[in-house]
Design goal:
single chain, mainly alpha, Ubiquitin-like (UB roll), Receptor-associated Protein, 3 domains, three-stranded antiparallel sheet, 17 helices, 3 strands, 74% helix
């Protein structure tokens, strides 16, 4: 069915969008049914400049979603209807995917569809947790509170993920720098001394022999080594995109030295924050855990949360299922138990989230101090090997030259 791009006016405001219809007359009829006065209707020709390749259009960023939720909170709190709110935001939204989604949501709302159902048609933009919180706002009549909870949660969640990236960035650069330095030394530096050492005519120190052998191997097979590295990296990146690969890698990340603990706590902070928001919205525990599985963005942790959900379905308490998951410390388990007994689970999970977030912030700040000794040790070992392997033969040559001078 052909697609038509239209512009029009509704309630004194300019609106635009795309409609699939058999012809332009059908588009005009649909617009009048939606109380939109059509100003211009044009068919989008296949291959024209109006159609962009799907992969070239950027998906909404975290900032786009946060701004959307914040603006919707302001508008709904002011009493503006959902349709008028979306129509106003369409004009100010710069992300094309989000704008297209909002245009379709307006059409769904005008046809009588509920907002949560309209949002659910765009799962790559609005995740399951987002949709369920909006659904709860529809049921309670507090849509503004739902949008407020969402943007506050997304802001904290964005900060948590930024801390995770910060924790991984520094050690990644360090490891890459060391690997590149070792390759450069073996391929460019050591060969400069090989010819000089071969003329000595005496036995070379063991460390020098190792350096020369390693350098000769790197020079002879440099192309194969680089190809193998690229193949391993490509294979690794491809594997972790699969379901078992992601499950394995997400588990490994939580056990990495130094940074693994930071990632683990940051992920648990996201879990607790999302759980608190769902609990505050009045969702059942089973539904909360189902939505939180996606919110943590870690397949290994999601599998543990799925185990918690199954445990609750078997009749276990939340505290018992949390204990069986092995994810939480005794202190956090005690806080969960208190929240379950008092009925203040949302407040307790908020405290759990803040507890983990404080720990993450503290450990990220001390990350450099923790890695620097390791970095200095590795660099010192490299310098020692080079000193023993290169300078010792040179000292021997210098000593031999001095003895000949004396004679």
């Amino acid at each position: 069915m052909p697609a038509f791009r239209y512009t029009g006016r509704s309630e004194g405001k300019s609106v635009e969008g795309v409609i699939n219809a058999p012809n332009a007359d059908a588009v005009v009829e649909q617009l009048f049914n939606r109380r939109i006065e059509p100003l211009d209707v044009q068919e989008i020709q296949s291959g024209s400049g109006d159609i962009e390749l799907d992969f070239l259009v950027e998906w909404p960023t975290d900032d786009d979603r946060i701004l959307f939720a914040r603006q919707m909170f302001t508008l709904t709190k002011s009493g503006v209807s959902l349709i008028r709110s979306f129509q106003g935001l369409v004009e100010s939204t710069h992300n094309k995917r989000l704008k297209q989604a909002m245009v379709r949501i307006i059409e769904d709302l005008q046809s009588g569809k509920e907002l949560s159902m309209a949002l659910a048609d765009h799962p790559k933009i609005f995740d399951r947790l987002f949709v369920r919180i909006i659904r709860m706002g529809e049921e309670t009549g507090r849509m503004d509170e739902s949008f407020k909870q969402l943007y506050q949660y997304m802001e904290v969640d964005k900060n948590t993920r930024r801390q995770i990236k910060s924790a991984l960035r520094y050690p990644s650069f360090v490891i890459m720098a060391i690997v590149v330095a070792m390759f450069v030394v073996n391929y460019f530096v050591i060969p400069k001394f090989t010819g000089m050492f071969s003329k000595m005519g005496s036995d070379l120190p063991f460390m020098t022999q190792i350096l020369m052998s390693t350098s000769a191997f790197v020079q002879a097979y440099a192309v194969y080594i680089i190809s193998a590295v690229f193949a391993v990296v490509y294979g690794f990146l491809t594997y972790i995109k699969t379901v078992p690969g992601r499950l394995w890698w997400d588990g490994v990340r939580l056990k990495l030295p130094i940074v693994g603990g930071i990632i683990n706590r940051a992920t648990l902070a996201r879990y607790a924050r999302a759980f608190s928001m769902g609990s505050r919205a009045g969702l059942p525990v089973i539904q909360i855990l189902g939505a939180v599985e996606e919110a943590v963005d870690n397949a290994f942790m999601a599998s543990r949360i799925a185990g918690m959900r199954e445990g609750i379905e078997r009749g276990e308490s939340l505290t018992q299922s949390a204990y069986n998951s092995g994810m939480f410390t005794p202190l956090v388990l005690q806080m969960i138990s208190v929240g379950e007994e008092t009925g203040g689970m949302d407040e307790m999970m908020t405290e759990v989230a803040e507890f983990y977030e404080r720990e993450v912030e503290y450990e990220v700040k001390g990350l450099s101090s923790a890695i620097e000794p390791i970095l200095l040790t590795v660099i010192g070992a490299m310098v020692l090997v080079l000193a023993l392997g290169i300078f010792m033969p040179m000292w021997d040559m210098g000593s031999a030259a001095m003895k000949k001078t004396k004679h």
